[in-house]
Amino acid sequence: MTKKKKEKHEETRDEIEKEKEVLEEKEEEEKTTDKETEKKIERQITRGKKTKEEVLEKAKEPEKKEPEKERRGRREYRREAEHVEWIPKTRLGNDVLKGKYKSLEDLLMKGEIILEPEIIDYLVPELKNELIYIGGTPGKGGGARRTPTKMTARMHKSGRRFKLNAVVVVGNEDGIIGIGKSVSNEHRTAIEKALQQAKLNVIKIRRGCGSWECNCEGAHSIPFKTEGKVGSVKVVMLPTPTGVGIVAGGETKKILRLAGVKDVWVKTYGMTSTRGNLAFAIFEALKNLSSKKGDM
Ligand SMILES: [Zn+2]
After folding, report:
1. 83: CA distance to ligand 1 center in Å?
2. From ligand 1's centre to the CA of 207, what distance in Å?
3. How many CB atoms are located within 10 Å of the residue 107 CB?
4. Which of 33-42, 74-83, 123-132, 265-274 has the lowest mean pLDDT?
5. Beta bridge partners of 178
6. Cα(109)–Cα(213) distance, rounded to whole angstroms?
7. Cα–Cα distance between 182 and 169 in angstroms, integer?
8. Nearest Cα to 131, choosing from 175, 182, 184?
9. Would you state the pLDDT for residue 110?
10. Which of 199, 153, 133, 212 shows the shortest CA–CA distance to 172?
11. Which of 111, 155, 216, 278 would you label with 119, given CA atoms 20 to 30 Å apart?
C-alpha cells in the first residue's frame, strides 16, 4: 500500500511539473509574438515608405473597431432610450417644461392633479426610491424570507395562476413622500409600475418639533400626534426630542427616512404583518399632519 501511495505522489508531482512547463512555454510564445510584431514594424520602417507612428496606428485601428460593434448590446440602447427628451402629454406637463412652476411645492399648493411621472422627475431630480418588502416565502411569522414582491394566486381549472404585487416609496428626504402599489405578471414590471404610481401620489408633509421635552423650533420631528388607519393596521405617531431617532420597524423606517422625519415614536395596532397596509397606514398618518389643526 505504501509503495502504491508513493507512486501516486510521484505521478501527481510529475503532472504538476508538466503543467508548469506548459505554462512557461506559453509565456515564452507570447513574448516571441511581441518580438515578431516589433520585427515586422521595424521591417516596414526599414523599407522606408512609412514612419513609425503610421505603422503603429495601422496596427491599432482594426483592434479598436471590432469590440465596439460587439459591445453594442441591450444596455446601450436602454441608456439611449432613457435619455430621450420628455414630450409632455398634459397641460400641466407643458407648464412645468416652460418653467411656470419652480418647485414641486408650488405645484402641490395649487392643488393640481399630476398625471405624468416625468413632472416629478423634472422638478425633483434628487428623488430617491425604496422597495417595501411586502412579500415572503411561506413559513412561520409572516414568511421566513422577505421579498419585495408578494405573490398571490387564483385557482384555474388547470392549476394556479400567479400575480405579483409591489409597493414602492419615493421621497427626497426633505418633506416630500409618495407611495404606490401595482400588480403585474412579472416581478420587474410590477416594481416599475409601482414606482410610476408612487411618483403620481406625492405629497408634501408638515414637519416641526412638537415635543415638550425638546422645545426647539426645528423641523426634525412632527408637530403633533397623528394617526393613520388602513385595513386593520392602525398607526399612531408621536413627536420626540432630538436624538431619539425613528423608533419603528424596518419597513416603517424606510418610509419615514425618505420623508425626512428624523425623530419620531411609532405605535402600531392590528395586523402589522401585512406590510402593504402598514406602509399605507404610515403614509395616511403623514398625510393627516397637513389636514389637522395643531399647536404649531
Ligand atoms: Zn426639537
Report:
1. 43
2. 11
3. 21
4. 74-83
5. 170, 202
6. 32
7. 12
8. 182
9. 86
10. 199
11. 278
Cα(220) to centroid of ligand 1, in Å? 6
What are the distances in angstroms from CA 163 to CA 143, 244, 249? 18, 40, 27
Please name the residue that has the C-alpha cell 411621472.
117
Task: Calculate how far, in angstroms, residue 219's C-alpha sits from the geometric centre of ligand 1.
Answer: 7
Distance from the alpha carbon of residue 215 to the mean position of ligand 1, in angstroms: 5
pLDDT of residue 76: 42
Cα–Cα distance, 266 to 268 (Å, whole number): 7
In this prediction, residue 296 carries a pLDDT of 43
> Residue 193 C-alpha to ligand 1 middle, in angstroms?
38
Q: Please tell me which residue, 146 or 194, carries the higher pLDDT value.
A: 194
Q: Residue 243 Cα, ligand 1 centroid: separation in angstroms?
A: 9
d(CA 199, CA 74): 26
Return the closest-CA partner of residue 241 out of 222, 266, 268: 222
CB 166 within 8 A of CB 181: yes
DSSP 76-92: HHHHHHHTSPP---SHH
Q: Which residue has the cell 469590440?
A: 67
Ligand 1 midpoint to CA 51 (Å): 75
pLDDT digits 0-9 by tens, 92-140: 888 888 888 888 888 888 888 889 988 888 888 889 999 999 888 776 6
Region for 268 from its dihedrals, namely left if φ exceeds 0, alpha if ψ lies in -120 to 50, beta otherwise: beta
What is the 258 CA–ligand 1 centroid distance (Å)?
19
Does 159 score more than 90 pLDDT?
A: yes
The whole-number pLDDT of residue 205 equals 92
Whether residue 202 is predicted with pLDDT greater than 50 in this model: the reply is yes
The CA 265 to ligand 1 mean position distance, Å, reads 13
